[in-house]
Amino acid sequence: MTKLDVTVEETVFATDKDLLMEHSEYFRALFQSGMRESTQDKILLRNLGAMGFLITLRVIAGERPLLSREEILQAVECAAFLQVELLSKHLINLIGYENCLVMYEAAATYGLLDLFHAAALYIRDIYEQLEEDINCLPAELLQYVNSLTPSTFVAVGAHTPTLEFLEDTSRTMCFLNEQENQWESLGCIPDNASTFLAGVAILNNKVFIVGGARGANKQVVERSFCYDADSHSWSEFACPHQLRYEVTLVGHEGHLYAFGGEYERVPLAFVEKYSLSSQTWSFGKELPQPTAGPPAAKAMGRIFICLWKPQETTVIYEYDTGKDDLINISSIRRPQSYGHCMVGHRDNLYIMRNGPSDDFLRCTLENFNLSTQQWTTLSGQYVNSKGALFTSVIRGDMVFALNRMMTLLYKVGTHSWRPIKEKAGFNKGGQLHTFFLRLPMKTKLMASKLYKNPHQSFL
Length: 459
Prior knowledge:
Layout: E1 3-8, E2 11-16, H1 17-23, H2 25-31, E3 42-45, H3 50-60, H4 69-82, H5 85-93, H6 100-110, H7 113-125, H8 127-130, H9 139-147, E4 151-157, E5 172-177, E6 182-188, E7 198-203, E8 206-211, E9 213-214, E10 219-220, E11 224-228, E12 233-237, E13 248-252, E14 255-259, E15 262-263, E16 266-267, E17 271-275, E18 280-283, E19 296-299, E20 302-309, E21 313-320, E22 325-333, E23 341-345, E24 348-354, E25 362-369, E26 374-377, E27 382-383, E28 393-395, E29 398-402, E30 406-412, E31 417-424, E32 432-438, H10 441-451
Parallel strand pairs: 1-3
Antiparallel strand pairs: 1-2, 4-5, 4-32, 5-6, 7-8, 8-11, 9-10, 11-12, 13-14, 14-17, 15-16, 17-18, 19-20, 20-21, 21-22, 23-24, 24-25, 25-26, 25-27, 28-29, 29-30, 30-31
Helix pairs in contact: 1-2, 3-4, 4-5, 4-6, 5-7, 6-7, 7-9
């Protein structure tokens, strides 16, 4: 560790010079410049706030602090001036209903482009909820938000590969037209693709399908498929080294992560990572136990996995993508409980599980807060009839829970999820995959045209 004293607003911070160079383009350029400052062990930073610099130091040291409005403004200034990508990513992970407009305007002021675009997308997705506040934005910022494509709720049922000569008009991926309150088709998935017990993930506005099974014997599907929402086209990509079904797939920062699964009815502990840039799979740290379909979620830019242990214990692990390691985060015991899933929202993980054994159609909901490391059981019970909460995804502060009867929207609250309204249900049986895509108008028009000929090939 090379010590460096940095003075900001008359406050002296004892810092690690190497750590600053690793995470800040500004300090890297300064200390490699050959100028007099590059050899000094004391630096004075002008025109920055001490609070913002303290937040910067906390973030590059590995903390993920929640920030107030004033702290956000100073953090954005530091992230832009010192060019700290890790701080920019942290700010993006903090975007929420109460701070998205502040983030957006601050990012525009200081030229922090990644945060600017991320905040604009968030605002576009919750446009109606912001009501009059949205009109307080400068005209050019409002115009940029309106130029973006909002995210759309998409669902696909459980389909196994079919022979080309067999007509199967049900092999469709559909989106919810919220204004008309009806489901519309995006066309058929490829004939050789399986969404039955497959891993499905979203990354870069694309749908990735890995593995899956066909037939009662669960014969593994040996092909992987990708749907590009921007071009409205399907393509194939490489399969993992270990073929599997009932695999959990997560998309994160240019990679797909495949967790667990089964092969020939044998549970697996393998973890594999697919790089979109190199188009190759590589093995990662194995799960501590073989598991089929472990629930997974992303929160605060991190990946979390839920595993069952004996004695009715649920354990949450973080998969550290930087170190390729599994970290035990927390555990909780609940009797007579099974079949759970998990979603992330801000610094919270929500774990859904069945209710008591005599009321399995009702779902209990528990929250693990990453900042406080505390568990909370949310008040009330949540309808789980025909799989509602077990297909939940979140947009902004709204949960979309889907079954054949309805799409139920919840507002995420501190101690409960409050039902807001109902939308049309998705009339498909069996397992459902739900997610959000940004569907350009041209994609919807192409889908409408192709739907008239649902067996036209996308490949």
